[in-house]
Design a protein that fits this description.
Two copies of one chain form a homodimer.
Chain A lengths: L2 E6 L7 H16 L3 E6 L5 H12 L5 H25 L4 E4 L1 H4 L1 E3 L8 E4 L2 H8 L3 E5 L2 E3 L5 E3 L4 H13 L3 E6 L20 E3 H9 L7 H9 L4 E5 L7 E4 L15 E5 L2 E10 L4 H11 L4 E8 L5 E9 L3 H16 L3 E5 L2 E7 L9 H11 L6 E5 L2 E7 L3 H11 L4 H6 L1
Parallel strand pairs in A: 1-2, 1-9, 2-6, 3-6, 9-11, 10-12
Antiparallel strand pairs in A: 4-5, 7-8, 11-12, 13-18, 14-16, 14-17, 15-16, 18-20, 19-20
Chain lengths: ~425, ~425
C-alpha cells in the first residue's frame, strides 16, 4: 500500500466528462489498495472568467479580494470531483485550502506556504476516504484566503506530499512527461524516463512549462519523488529525482534537454563608463519598475574605461524598458549608446552531465556555425548554456542541436 | 449615525452593472455617516448553474459537497461587490460565512444559525470599512461549510442585524414593498407602510414570496426592525414591525392583505370511521413520504360514527399523495371513499385587526356569494381566514375581497 498525492490541472478537470475520467483514474489506484490525496485546479477557463469579471468592475482590486474571488474556482472543482468519486462508490471528502490547514503568509496572489496541518487528512485516509484538496490556495494567520499564484496547484501537491511523507507526488498534465525538447518544434524529441531536479529547474525556468518551478524546488528540498504523467493516456511519465552524485555522472547523457523561448528582447548599452556601480545604475530603475531581467552579459571594452552592457527582458516589457533606459539611465550615465532588439530567441542546453564534460560549449557553437546561425549573446551556468540568436533561426537551431547532442529518437534506438 | 444591515438578493446583484449600482447605493448611506454591513446572495442564475453541474455528475451527491459547491456563488458576489465599493472610494472587506463566524448546526443544505461572532465585523466597522458578508452560508463546529437553504440570505441579514444590534435590517428585492395583494392580479393593490411580523408570517407562508419566513420569525424573535425595499428605485418600502398591543388595534385596518395560491390540491376521505387516531393513520404515511400538508379540515358526520377528512398538499405532491392514500391508508381504514381535486385555489385574508372584529368571516362569505363563488373548504386562525375555491374563480375572488375590505387604492385616497 502506497500513499499517492495526485494533482490534476485545469485541462484535466476542464469538463464534467473530464472530472468523471479523473474519478475513474483515482478509483483504480484506490482499488489497488493505495491511499490517495487528490489536488485539483480550477476548471480550465474558470480562473480567467473570474479575473475578467473583476476587471469589468475594478481595474485595481485589492489582492485580498482577488484571492477571495478566484479561490472559488478550485472550490467548485473539489466538490464536483468528490461527487464524481462518490458516484463511483468511493467515499470522498473535499477540503478548501483553508479547511485543510494550508497556512501561508499574507502575500495575497503570490503567497508562500508556511505549514500544513495534516491531522484531519490522515484521519480521513485511515477511514478509507479519498481526500480532495483545492490546489493553489491557503489561508493566512488572520483567516484571509490567499492564493499561491498561477500554477500554484503543483506547489500544493508537492507540499502536501512532503507533509504527508507520501510515496510519490504525481502531477497529471496534458503531456505524457518531460521531453528532450518541444515535440512541436523537433519531431525527434523524446520523453525522458528520469530527470534531475536541477535540470528540471533549468528547463522550467527556460520555458518548458510542464511544472511550476516552485513545485520542483519544493520537491528537491523535501526529497519528494515527483512524477509528471498524462491525464489522458496511461504511461510511466517522467520521474524527477534528487540530484545525483558525481560518481553517477559518467553514465549521464551529456545533455538532458533543449529549452527555447522567443519571448524575450535584448537591450544593449554600448560604451558606458566602466566605473563601479554602473550595473546597478542601469538595472536599478528597471527593478524599480518591477521588470524582471533574465540574461545579463557585460564585456569590458579592450580599451579599458568603457564597457558594453547587455541584458534581456520579457518581450512585453521591451518598450517600457527602452523608455526607462532612455529617460532615466542614459542621462545619468552621461555617455553611452542604446540599442535594442526584440526579434531574438534564446536556446539553452541543459544537463547535469555537462558539469564533468568539457567541450559542450564548443560543440554547441560549432553546430550553430555549421547552420550559419550567428550567436548574439552567451550565458552559462553549471548545468546550462544559453545562446541568444535571431528569432527566425530558433527552430533550426533547436533541431540541429537536438541531433548533434544525440537526443534524436533514432539515435537512441540504434544504440 | 445608524448601523444598517442591507441585504441584496440574486437579481439585485445579477450582473456587473447591478453590482456597481448596489455599490453606489451603499456608498450613499456611508456618505451620510452610517455604518453599513452588506449581505449578498449569489448572482441570479449562478446557484442553478452549479446545481446543474452537480446533477450531471451525481444525482445524489452528499449534502456536504453540495454546500461546498453552491457556497462559491455568494463568495464570488462578495468579492466583486467589495471591489466595486473600493472602486467608488469606499474601503470594503468581504467575508465568507465561515470567516465572519456564522456558526450553524451540521444540517447541510438546511442548516440553522446557532451564533455569530461579530468581533471582526465591529472592528472593521469602527475603522470605517463597509463589510460585505456572504449570505446563505455558515460553518459548523468541525469547519464544514453549510448552507441555510434557499432564500437563507434573508436569514443571514436578520441574524447579523440581531447580533450587531443594528438599527434596521433592509431587505432589497425586486418589489418596492409588501402589497395588500399581488398587483398583477389586482391593479388596485397598494403598498403597505407597515405590517406586523405576525401578518407578514401569514402572508409569506401563503405565497407572497417577498421574504423568507425564517427571516421574519427571526426578526420578530429578536426585535429587529425589518424593512423591505426595492433595489431598483428609491422609496420607503414596507417596515415590518413587532406585533402591536391590543389597544392600538382599533386604529388597525381590519385586513392588511390578501394572499392567494393556485399551487395546492385537495384530497378528501369520505365516510371514514370516526375513531381515535384516524387522523394520524391518514397523515402518518403522508408525512413519512416527506409531503407537507397545509390546510386540514375534519367534519364529524351528523350520524355520529363517520367523519369526512379533507386536507391540501402542494400540487406537485398530488399524485403521490393520492397513491399513498389508495395503497396504504384506505385498506388500513377498512372503509371510506377517496376524492381529490387539483383545480383549486386558496384565498386568505390576513390582518391582526380581525382579532377584535367579529364579522370578517361573514363579510368574506357574503362577498364571495355575491360573485357566485362556491366555497369548498374553510380554515381559520386568529389573524387569517382561508377559503378554498375553484381555481378559475381565484382572481375574481381576490379583486372582490380587495374592494369589499376597503383595500383598493381609491378607497384609501377618498378617506
Amino acid at each position: 500500500m502506497a500513499l499517492y498525492v495526485q494533482k490534476f490541472g485545469g485541462t484535466s478537470v476542464g469538463s464534467v466528462e473530464r472530472i468523471k475520467a479523473v474519478a475513474e483514474k483515482v478509483k483504480r489506484f484506490r482499488d489497488e489498495g493505495h491511499q490517495v490525496v487528490v489536488v485539483v485546479s480550477a476548471m480550465s477557463g474558470e480562473t480567467n472568467r473570474l479575473i475578467e469579471l473583476a476587471g469589468q468592475i475594478n481595474d485595481e482590486p485589492t489582492p485580498r479580494e482577488m484571492d477571495m474571488l478566484v479561490s472559488t474556482g478550485e472550490q467548485v472543482t473539489i466538490s464536483l470531483l468528490a461527487m464524481a468519486l462518490q458516484k463511483t462508490g468511493v467515499p470522498a471528502t473535499s477540503y478548501t485550502g483553508a479547511q485543510v490547514g494550508i497556512r501561508t503568509d499574507s502575500a495575497h496572489t503570490k503567497a508562500r506556504i508556511q505549514r500544513i496541518e495534516t491531522d484531519d487528512l490522515r484521519e480521513d485516509l485511515a477511514e478509507g476516504q479519498v481526500v480532495v484538496v483545492a490546489g493553489f490556495q491557503g489561508v493566512d494567520e488572520e483567516g484571509n484566503i490567499t492564493t499561491l499564484g498561477r500554477g500554484g496547484s503543483d506547489t500544493t501537491g508537492v507540499a502536501l506530499a512532503a507533509a504527508l511523507k507520501a510515496d510519490e507526488c504525481q502531477i497529471y498534465t496534458d503531456v505524457d512527461g518531460v521531453y528532450t525538447t518541444d515535440p512541436r518544434v523537433c519531431s525527434k524529441a523524446q520523453r525522458l524516463e528520469t530527470i534531475t531536479v536541477e535540470e528540471m529547474l533549468e528547463l522550467a525556468s527556460l520555458g518548458s512549462k510542464v511544472l511550476q518551478i516552485r513545485a520542483v524546488e519544493f520537491a528537491g528540498k523535501y526529497n519528494v519523488p515527483l512524477r509528471v504523467l498524462s491525464s489522458f493516456e496511461d504511461g510511466p511519465g517522467t520521474l524527477i529525482i534528487a540530484d545525483q552524485d558525481d560518481e553517477d555522472s559518467m553514465e549521464e547523457p551529456l545533455i538532458s534537454g533543449i529549452a527555447f523561448t522567443a519571448n524575450e528582447a535584448k537591450l544593449t548599452l554600448l560604451n558606458t563608463p566602466d566605473v563601479p556601480g554602473v550595473a546597478s545604475r542601469i538595472l536599478g530603475p528597471i527593478a524599480d519598475a518591477n521588470i524582471e531581467v533574465d540574461m545579463i552579459v557585460q564585456n569590458v571594452a579592450p580599451a579599458g574605461d568603457y564597457t558594453d552592457f547587455t541584458f534581456t527582458v520579457a518581450k512585453g516589457d521591451y518598450k517600457q524598458t527602452m523608455r526607462i533606459l532612455k529617460e532615466q539611465v542614459l542621462p545619468d550615465l552621461g555617455e553611452g549608446e542604446l540599442r535594442g532588439d526584440d526579434n531574438i530567441a534564446k536556446v539553452s542546453l541543459v544537463g547535469v552531465g555537462m558539469r564533468s564534460h568539457a567541450g559542450v560549449a564548443s560543440r554547441m557553437f560549432r553546430t550553430l556555425a555549421e547552420e550559419n546561425i550567428n550567436i548574439r549573446m552567451v550565458s552559462t551556468s553549471e548545468i546550462k548554456i544559453s545562446v541568444v540568436i535571431d528569432e527566425k533561426q530558433m527552430e533550426l537551431a533547436v533541431r540541429a542541436l537536438h541531433r548533434a547532442f544525440g537526443l534524436d529518437k533514432e539515435d537512441v534506438e540504434s544504440e
